[in-house]
Amino acid sequence: MSDTRVPALDIALVGDSASGAPAAAASAAARTNIFDFDRATLERFFEVELGEKTFRAHQVMKWIHHRHVTEFADMTDLGKALRAKLEARAEVRAPQVLLDKESADGTRKWLIGMDPRNAIETVYIPDKGRGTLCVSSQVGCALNCTFCSTATQGFNRNLSTAEIIGQVWVAARALGNVPHQQRRLTNVVMMGMGEPLANFDNVVRAMSIMRDDLGYGLANKRVTLSTAGMVPMIDRLAAESDVSLAVSLHAPFDELRSELVPLNRKYPIAELMDACVRYATRKKGESVTFEYTLMRGVNDQPEHARALVKLMRDFDRRVQMKDAAKVNLIPFNPFPGTRFERPGDEAIRAFQKQLNNAGMIAPVRRTRGDDIDAACGQLKGQVMDRTRRQAEFRKSLQGQGGVPDAA
Ligand code: SAH
Questions:
Q1: What pTM, to 2 d.p., does this model score?
Q2: How far away, in angstroms, is 233 Cα from ligand 1 center?
Q3: For residue 55, how many other CB atoms are within 10 A of its CB?
Q4: Concatenated DSSP letters for 314-345?
Q5: 105 Cα: distance to centroid of ligand 1 (angstroms)
Q6: Is the predicted pLDDT of residue 1 greater than 60, yes or no?
Q7: Which residues are catalytic?
Q8: Distance, CA 87 to ligand 1 centroid (Å)?
Q9: Cα–Cα separations (whole angstroms), residue 238 to 55, 209, 263, 281, 360
């Protein structure tokens, strides 16, 4: 599996740039990467740094995100002088596609190189009338959820805004997506590798480009951020952005949840649910999705379903809206070395039925792309030099929410 990717990483990084531009790494490093800007920051860059009008920034955004053009020379509605100025100061540096794999079910996965040592995975899941892109926010993950394959890779670093929106750009270009015209990308879920709320600023800025008409033109509710439950950051998200929230719950009891999601020791279920209520009530008619990965004999018993129903009903009552809590059941996707198993179809149906009988909507997420290791929890990428970085990252998080040590 992953060992076959190591040579691919090395070979592909020798100058094969997804932008089609020569990989002039040394000089490129000094120039500002336009991919790091959302509309507000790019306008500022144009006004303050370049002394240009803001509508020029808008033209550039359209070239990049609508037409997938990365050479200033090809941006024909910009004057020659401006193009030269941009050439000198900036660049449009897309991440490098190392592998592009398509599953038998139409799911597509890209392995994208972020630097010579690290790569992440991005997954496109087409379905009737919609196309969902699953985007990564970090190289690896520091949260150590015991049932997630990304956790086994350790943590290396946060992705920049450019590296996050670059994943959307790579997919949009490969799929021939044109916002509002040829919509291949209709939804983005921040459910790839990493904990998006642990990389707050970069993720929020990238999500602003996803929702901008000059970017990918997605409606707020079609951009979903999924978190393992970083409570203070959920409140910050409510204050600073406007996207759909998904929470990886996986267990209705603290003891069990702490085993599966060690972050629960810091932010137990009651505190997490309080934060979700605050998030949902900031706006009328807002729901929160609770992801529940079903693991055989672990969290798939009638007592779990009963407690889950109670938790969700309580949420609906506090938000004062029926179906404010949406449960998404995810059959566990196995990966090498895991001690967990997927329950049988019958057990999955029985669990779902118990929720349905209590009047709850609880779709079972169909497993997609598992033949190319693209299903939930199967994303690994290439994470190098992870142990030292992980310790540093944990330290840096202390004081701003922090993460507890692994189980
Ligand atoms: N860190 C964020 C974003 C990752 S989302 C979060 O935890 O929400 C990835 C989703 O897939 C999460 O709900 C995660 O719990 C789930 N998942 C992880 N490993 C899985 C596995 N092996 N099988 C099925 N779902 C899994």
A1: 0.88
A2: 18
A3: 10
A4: HHHHHHTSTT-EEEEEEEPPP-TT----PPPH
A5: 21
A6: no
A7: 121, 376
A8: 41
A9: 29, 18, 20, 10, 25
Q: Which two tokens stand for residue 348?
A: 């999955």
Our answer on whether the CB atom of 228 is closer than 6 Å to any ligand 1 atom is yes
What integer pLDDT is reported at residue 373 of this predicted model? 78
pLDDT (0 to 100) of residue 376: 75
The SS3 call for residue 133 is: strand
Structure tokens at 303: 């007592």
Atom 7 in ligand 1: which residue has the minimum CA distance?
228
Tokens of 248: 């990886």
pLDDT tens for each residue of 323-339: 999 999 999 999 889 99
Whether ligand 1 lies within 6 angstroms of the CB of 151 is answered as: no
Q: How many residues does the chain have?
A: 407
CA 389 to each of CA 3, 45, 155, 158: distance values in angstroms, whole numbers, following the listed order: 22, 32, 7, 10
Instruction: Give the pair of three-digit tokens for residue 381.
Output: 């990428």
Q: How far apart are the CA of 191 and the centre of ligand 1, in A?
A: 7
CA distance 254 to 201: 29
Residue 72 CA to residue 53 CA, distance in Å, equals 17
The better pLDDT of the pair 4, 255 is held by 255
Q: Any idea which residue has 């759909």 for tokens?
A: 244
Q: Which of 123, 150, 191, 233 to mutate to test the pocket of ligand 1 (most atoms within 8 A of CB)?
A: 191
Q: Is residue 191 lining ligand 1, measured as CB closer than 6 Å?
A: yes
Q: For Cα atoms 57, 216, 293, give the angle at the middle one, nearest 5 degrees.
A: 140
Written as six digits, the tokens of 90 are 């900036």
Closest CA to 248 of 222, 230, 235: 230
Between CA 138 and CA 140, with CA 139 as vertex, the angle to 5 degrees is: 95
Please state whether beta strands 187-190 and 130-134 pair in parallel, antiparallel, or not at all (unpaired).
parallel
